[in-house]
Amino acid sequence: MVTRSLFFCIGIALAAVSGRGACQSTHATRFVVGAVQHGHVRNVSADTTARSWTLRSGPVLYRVSARGDSAVVDYFGPEAKEGDSAARVLPTYPRIPTRSLAGTVNGAPLAPGALRFVAGRVMHLGRGVDELRLTHRHATLPLDVEERVTAWGSTGVVTRELTITNRGRATIRVDLAPTMLLPRGPYALQYLYGNWGQERQLAGEALGAGVRDFEQTSGRSSKGYVPWIALRNERAGIQYLAELAWSGNWSARVERYPGENDIALVERPVALRMGLRHDAGGPLSLAPGASFTTPRLALTAAAGDLDDAENQMHRWQRSYVMPPSPGNRPLLVHFNTWYPYGQDVDLAKAKAAADVAATLGLEAYVIDSGWYVDSDWVMELGDWKVSRRKFPHGLEELADYVRARGMKFGMWIEVENLGQGSRNFREHPDWCLSYEGKPVINDRRCQLDFAKPAVREWARGVVEGVVTKYRLGWLKIDYNIDAGDVFDPASPRRAGARLHDHVQAYYAWLDELRAAHPELVVENCSSGALRFDSGIIAHTHTTWVSDVVNAKQSLQLGYGCTVQFPPELCNHWMVGEKDDGTVDPAGDPAWWDFMFRVPMTGQFGISSRVAEWPAAVRERAAANVALYKEIRGTITGADVYHLTPSPDHDAPRGWMAIQYVAPADGRSVLLAYRLPDGEATRVFRMRGLARDATYDVRVDGAPSGALTGAQLAHAGLPVTLGAEWRAAVIELAPRR
Question: Do 340 and 255 fall within a single domain?
Answer without folding.
Answer: no
